[in-house]
What does this fold into?
Amino acid sequence: MPRPKCFRNIGFLPYVTYFKPAGIRMGDLDEVIIQHDELEAIRLKDHLGIQQEEAAKQMNVSQPTFHRLILAAHEKMADAVVNGKALRIEGGNVTIDNGQVPTYGLQQMWKRGWNEKSVSKKGDALLTEQGGAMKIAITSVDGTLEGMVDERFGRSRKLVVYDQESKEHTVIDNAINMGAAQGAGIQSAQNVVNAGAKVVVSGHLGPNAFRVLQAAGVEVYVVSNMTVAQVIQAYEQGKLAKLAGPDVNGHW
It folds into this structure.
């Protein structure tokens, strides 16, 4: 199994995430997907004109990695424009660096469904608050607070649903999805939605599960090598990394 990539910092969430050629039906189009980290590299280098060394530092990547992100984004954009393909922005192993989000981003955030309670201003930086009374679904290997987080989402053995208000938790048996040939991520995501959770914490999520959760307004955070109890504490302290898109392929 390949080692997961390190998180790349991004300071921008686009309001428009889909572009298509005029006059061609959606069903007749091929798609090109640009990930959020690739878009961020384009924004920093090509749009803002930041030098590569500084841009790589802002994204928390090496300069060779930043260069590869730029090349990949350029190739995908060229493919879409030259060959008449649709362009979708999603995915990437990223975390949102709110200290870099410009103040004009507030208007875009509100259009995306954010509100004044979820965003606060401190100096020139915006801080997205974690926490608030809600239910948190955490993938678990054994269904206990002391047990480890299962780093698979769709094929996790258990889902621990923690209620921040009552401080109690329930356990959903997700074992039926462990051996599923397909659809495990979608079904696990539906289990989360049915449980009333508004936050999911796991190790990795594939594209199908992420789309279901995103459509239901469920926020996704990722962790590694933590117990369920440690995750709850870290979430309430605002220390978890938020996932902006799927970070593994389907059937992972």
